[in-house]
Design brief:
CATH topology of the largest domain in chain B: MetI-like fold
Largest sheet of chain A: 11 strands, mixed
Helix content of chain A: 25-40%
Oligomer: heterodimer
Structural class of chain A: alpha/beta
CATH topology of the largest domain in chain A: Rossmann fold
CATH architecture of the largest domain in chain B: Orthogonal Bundle
Low-confidence stretches of chain B: 255-266
Structural class of chain B: mainly alpha
Helix content of chain B: over 70%
Largest sheet of chain B: none
CATH class of the largest domain in chain A: Alpha Beta
Strand content of chain B: under 5%
Radius of gyration of chain B: 23 Å
CATH superfamily of the largest domain in chain A: P-loop containing nucleotide triphosphate hydrolases
Largest interface: A-B, 24 and 21 residues
Order of helices and strands of chain A: EEEHEEEHHHEHEHEEEHH
Low-confidence stretches of chain A: none
CATH architecture of the largest domain in chain A: 3-Layer(aba) Sandwich
Number of domains of chain B: 2
Number of helices of chain A: 8
Radius of gyration of chain A: 18 Å
Number of helices of chain B: 21
Distance between the termini of chain A: 34 Å
Shape of chain A: globular
Chain lengths: ~230, ~500
């Protein structure tokens, strides 16, 4: 279980609090107006943004002082999820060993992960030779290899068209349920939340509210959400 | 573990830099036997300042019409002209001087034409010659600075000005003059600084009590008068002067990456009529001025191939070795510093800029004073040259690496951290591939600078450890012009080849 225990983040005028938990294997969307702090919250969980107060806990253990790369999570950023100078196989291999010293078994796992996301046989290509959707798939395949119990998505598919985005979200859902990973996904699109998430965190007016079941939230939206949906 | 290693080596590099620059200055200051300057010292100080100011001012003035012509005209060979602008920076100073002597010297075509027209001849020795050579060496650099300023003005501005009915004069006042006012002082300051530490030009074209720079005076005090106290005093004075100018320069210049983003397509308004002619003449004159000395050296060198001087190949081998080792050392040191600065050690930036204040002769004098009591300095001529050249090239390499390194950090820093990519893995899979291009370019630049350097080697070398530039200088001094020209051609080819090889190596590893 991932717990945000009395978390406070302050950056100049900006202030955000959060105090809730997400269970193993749960899929949660984080929505809210732009500038409310959705990405900041995610980056705080990932260890890139320092907390002003409170703790982030995984299975009861405090993550304070744990380097981003050592945390039990994988991140898909908004962009730049792949190194353009490395091949897909190398990019994925970094998910297994940051020094890229892979034995044959590990290389086979890389090939299998590529096949799993529909990029079979493309290991020798560079990211620049792929479409945006294929790049997203490759990044997801690397998260699959890293096999961390939490997956953080910071709108990585925002630049894709609606059909392709829906396809990617379904793929994420499949991959996450296979590995039993919890997913926290930032989005500004309520349709993404409806399609993908079991529960939704609303970030508005300095508070990341505790997750609420998706159907319930949209059936009876609170004032802040009504203003955001317009 | 590897991160700590990186931090320790960065601090070590900073300490070595401080020891060689500040340390040399301190050693020289402590060895100065008297603090009173003789009239000759004052003359050297005055000449140093006057020639640097004239060189900077003339380069800046001439750069404006040339850069404007290159910015607003499109013609065949424009790219080649812009590329030619990079050449003199790589050109060994002794070769440039030899080319200028061939064109502007007593028997050169310029003086022949003047005689033919019954006009008084022109002497390339003394103040004019020194300024001429400095303008030749620095005009292209200034043009590139100003050209970047022109490209930085968005084309839409010019379109807007035209739609408001502004003529060329009004556009100059409202668009180009403000840009020049922000770009030119920085460009002139850089040229001024480079000319303050000019040694080889003053050695060959200046000299005598009336045309001696501080660098040259240090050399003469040490080599000819063996007056260690006076050399020390002059070196301390030179360091103080350069340090003050560096501090002033840092206030007026923005950090600029060399060689980035030139020659790209910006559709600009180009007036016709006499302005078209003026632009054409500006470009033609500049190309002639830059290319003629190069051609003269090449031609003289080719015709002198029959009489290759003895010791040429050994000198070339020594120069290559010095250039490659010092360039690699400098590249490693610059990379270590840049990576440490990225990790937040901002104070190391100052260490990377220190060498700008210490000239080759100041560091050379400091090292000479330390080594001299222990063993004969000429025994260490080559290692000292390697070290000093590496230090002198470091600021250029640092400036070449920093923008790309910052971009790498901004684009991939978090991704690398989230994948736990650190230490040697990070170096191997992220840093070296991403920085290969500026690393290759900067190392090439450092190798070419070191290859052509005539500074500290002149201070230390005896009869044995002669490098190629020193050989050329000695041949020129003995009026063996044919032999000097063929050696110059070889030096020119080797310098450009070294730059090209490193630059290409970097480009090939960066094919992303």
């Amino acid at each position: 279980m991932l717990t945000l225990d009395g978390v406070e983040i302050e950056q100049g005028d900006f202030r955000l609090t959060a105090d809730w938990s997400v269970g193993a294997g749960e899929r949660v969307a984080i929505i809210g107006p732009s500038g409310a702090g959705k990405s900041t919250l995610l980056m705080a969980v990932a260890g890139f943004v320092a907390l002003t107060a409170g703790r982030v806990l995984w299975q009861g253990g405090d993550l304070a002082g744990v380097e981003p790369g050592q945390r039990p999570l994988s991140v898909l950023f908004q962009d730049q999820n792949l190194f353009p100078h490395l091949t897909l196989a190398q990019n994925l291999g970094l998910g297994i060993d940051p020094d890229l010293r892979l034995d044959t078994g590990q290389k086979a796992r890389v090939a299998a992960a590529l096949a799993r996301v529909g990029l079979e046989g493309m290991g020798a290509r560079r990211p620049g030779q792929l479409s945006g959707g294929q790049q997203g798939r490759a990044a997801l395949a690397r998260a699959l290899l890293r096999a961390r119990p939490v997956l953080l998505l910071d709108e990585p598919f925002a630049a894709l068209g609606p059909a392709l985005k829906a396809e990617m979200l379904d793929l994420v859902a499949e991959v996450a349920s296979e590995s039993g990973a919890a997913v926290l996904m930032v989005t500004h699109d309520p349709a993404d939340a409806r399609r993908f998430a079991v529960r939704v965190v609303l970030v508005a007016e300095g508070v990341a509210q505790a997750p609420v079941p998706t159907a319930e939230l949209f059936a009876n939206p609170p004032e802040a959400l009504r203003r955001y949906l317009g | 573990m590897a991160d700590r290693l990186g931090k320790i080596s960065a601090v070590l590099v900073a300490l070595i830099l401080a020891a060689l620059t500040l340390g040399s200055a301190a050693v020289t200051a402590s060895r100065a036997t008297s603090w009173s300057l003789t009239p000759a010292d004052w003359a050297a100080l005055r000449f140093t300042l006057v020639q640097a100011a004239l060189s900077a001012g003339i380069s800046a003035l001439l750069a404006v019409p040339v850069a404007r012509a290159l910015a607003r005209r499109r013609f065949r060979g424009r790219e080649a002209v812009i590329r030619l602008m990079a050449a003199p920076f790589l050109l060994p100073t002794v070769v440039a001087v030899l080319g200028l002597l061939a064109v502007f010297g007593r028997a050169g075509p310029v003086n022949q034409a003047l005689t033919w027209l019954n006009l008084p001849g022109f002497s390339i020795y003394g103040l004019h010659g020194v300024v001429l050579a400095h303008v030749f060496l620095n005009l292209p650099l200034t043009v590139r600075f100003v050209l970047q300023g022109w490209f930085a003005v968005p084309a839409e501005r010019f379109r807007l000005a035209q739609s408001l009915g502004m003529g060329p004069a009004a556009q100059f006042r409202h668009l180009e003059l403000p840009m020049l006012r922000s770009v030119l002082p920085g460009a002139a300051a850089v040229v001024f600084l480079l000319c303050l530490t000019s040694f080889a030009v003053a050695l060959t074209l200046g000299g005598g009590p009336k045309a001696s720079t501080l660098e040259l005076a240090i050399y003469q005090a040490l080599r000819f008068d063996f007056d260690l106290g006076r050399a020390a005093l002059l070196a301390a004075l030179q360091f103080a002067l350069c340090g003050a100018v560096v501090l002033a320069t840092l206030r007026v210049t923005q950090p600029t990456g060399f060689g980035a983003g030139l020659g790209r397509e910006v559709p600009v308004f180009a007036p016709g009529g006499w302005r078209l002619w003026a632009d054409g003449i500006a470009v033609l004159l500049t190309v002639g001025f830059l290319a003629a000395p190069l051609l003269a050296v090449a031609l003289a060198g080719l015709s002198g191939m029959g009489s290759l001087p003895s010791g040429l190949w050994a000198a070339a081998g020594r120069s290559l070795m010095v250039a490659v080792i010092s360039a690699l050392l400098s590249a490693m040191a610059a990379l270590v510093l840049v990576l440490a600065v990225l990790r937040g050690a901002r104070w190391l930036e100052a260490a990377a800029m220190l060498p700008l204040a210490a000239s080759g002769l100041v560091m050379g004098t400091g090292l000479f004073l330390i080594i001299h009591p222990l063993l004969p300095p000429e025994r260490l001529a080559l290692p000292v040259t390697v070290l000093v050249n590496a230090v002198l090239a470091l600021p250029f390499l640092y400036r070449a690496l920093l923008p790309e390194a910052l971009a790498m950090q901004a684009d991939y820093g978090r991704l690398a951290e989230s994948l736990n990519l650190r230490g040697f893995g990070r170096l191997r899979w992220l840093v070296l591939p991403r920085l290969a291009r500026p690393l290759g370019f900067g190392t090439g630049l450092a190798a070419a600078l070191s290859m052509g350097d005539l500074g500290v080697i002149a201070l230390f070398a005896g009869d044995r450890a002669v490098t190629l530039p020193l050989l050329i200088q000695r041949l020129t001094g003995a009026y063996r012009m044919e032999a000097a020209a063929s050696a110059s051609l070889l030096l020119l080819l080797l310098s450009f080849a070294l730059f090209w090889a490193f630059d290409r190596m970097g480009g090939r590893h960066a094919d992303a």
